[in-house]
Design a protein that fits this description.
This protein is α+β, with helices and mostly antiparallel strands. The protein is 43% helix and 24% strand. It has 2 helices and 4 strands; from the N terminus they run E-E-H-E-E-H. A hairpin with a 2-residue loop joins strand 3 and strand 4.
């Protein structure tokens, strides 16, 4: 388990993640992490849950209108 300390960075507060944690999350400088509330606290993840919901809705729509999407892509 890793622990991180909250530090003052300019007028804000921030935390530095250890390299091992960055490697596990497969993220680097400039990437965005999302804080997702769970029943056990907060989950830190590089995956945007709203994007996943949007893609699931698109997949349902795509099945019905795949020919129209192909024509639009030309």
């Amino acid at each position: 388990m890793h622990s991180i300390k909250i530090r003052k960075i300019g007028n804000s507060l921030g935390a530095t993640l250890p390299r091992e944690v960055l490697a596990q999350l497969n993220v680097g400088e400039g990437d965005i992490l999302h804080l997702v509330p769970t029943e056990n606290g907060i989950q830190l993840t590089p995956y945007d849950p709203e994007f996943e919901q949007t893609m699931a809705a698109f997949e349902d729509t795509y099945k019905d209108y795949c020919n129209a999407f192909r024509e639009l892509a030309k």
